[in-house]
Amino acid sequence: TPAAQSGQRPRGAAYDSVFLRAARNEPVPHTPVWFMRQAGRSLPEYLKVREGIPMLDSCMRPDLVKEITLQPVRRHKVDAAIFFSDIVVPLKAVGIDVEIKAGVGPVIADPIRTEADLQRLRPLEPDDMPYITEAVGLLVAELGATPLIGFAGAPFTLASYLVEGGPSKSYENTKAMMYGAPELWAGLVDRLAQITSAFLKIQIEAGASAVQLFDSWAGALAPDEYRRSVLPASTKVFDAVAPYGVPRIHFGVNTGELLGLMGQAGADIVGVDWRVPLDEAANRVGPGKGLQGNLDPAVLYAPTHVVETKAREVLHAAQALGGSHHIFNLGHGVMPSMDPDALTRLVAFVHEASAR
Ligand code: CP3
Prior knowledge:
Elements: H1 2-6, H2 18-23, H3 44-50, H4 55-58, H5 62-76, E1 81-82, H6 89-93, E2 98-101, E3 105-108, H7 115-118, H8 130-143, E4 148-153, H9 155-164, H10 172-180, H11 182-206, E5 210-214, H12 223-229, H13 231-241, E6 248-251, H14 259-264, E7 269-271, H15 278-285, E8 290-295, H16 304-318, E9 326-330, H17 340-353
The structure holds coproporphyrinogen III.
């Protein structure tokens, strides 16, 4: 589009929100906070609207996507909405036979293991996901000054599902391809970089004002292997969306040793799980980038005063960044059994304790 080509986007109603100001490293009245997986299984109102509707069907119904995305914003007063969808939705859009099994995760009917399999993974075209464009449009209109974060799965994490055929602990088939068939692997992550870039562009063009790339399982890799086999594809994704000028977040779990490289891929903000304190993460990521995180999600199961002490420690460590440039989050997603009220209280606490 002309806007993307000129590097300019119209400034949406959320442009001056606390979340987007912090993401741009501008002064903020308090630290913004949102949660990964804030929409979904921990909320009774979610379980109610999802009753009898398969996960991936719900992602293709703009009315439902809008309602589910808004539920945690209404309830918790978080500083940003995360678009309700899933990392495998664009794979389904290009014809991959995938479903999400409750309590398991994405399951792929015919895993990709050979060059012939790879040919089934066609590019994602801008008009392949009209339901996403419609849902984002409805949401942005309703959210007003609250920003909407778009997202996608990173090439490695998507590849792990496609090659294993489902969730994995050791990624043996994925790594067998990465180590043993490097050209096939490069072709796979290159195709995934295209699909992921196109999915993010669809969300940004429809009005999402920040994006997060989820490389949730990249922590399975040693830094050298990440640099060689994953970094080029993820860099392509960040480069593809750079012209829009929206903040780009890069997140993974168990990625303490990869934080510097994940920043190098082109992120403006690097997500940190709870294993590395934010002041140390700042050293690893280097100057000029923001950090997001990093309270251990399991802390939410402890009494309120403990949650608040631990949250204060995160805010304190973030001061290594000079105040702004920190987005408060959990180190990974909200768990289904969490008490939603504990999350609501945590949002209020972060706002209060970080007020300046
Ligand atoms: O609030 C939000 O973050 C909502 C949007 C969202 C979902 N999935 C909804 C969802 C996002 C950003 C994701 C990303 C996603 N999906 C990731 C990366 C994030 C992370 O946690 O690291 C991954 C690895 C997936 C793949 C996936 N989809 C898994 C592992 C599961 C859980 C399966 C289970 O039941 O244990 C899903 C399903 C899923 N995606 C649910 C939701 C709300 C649960 C669906 C349900 O209600 O049954």
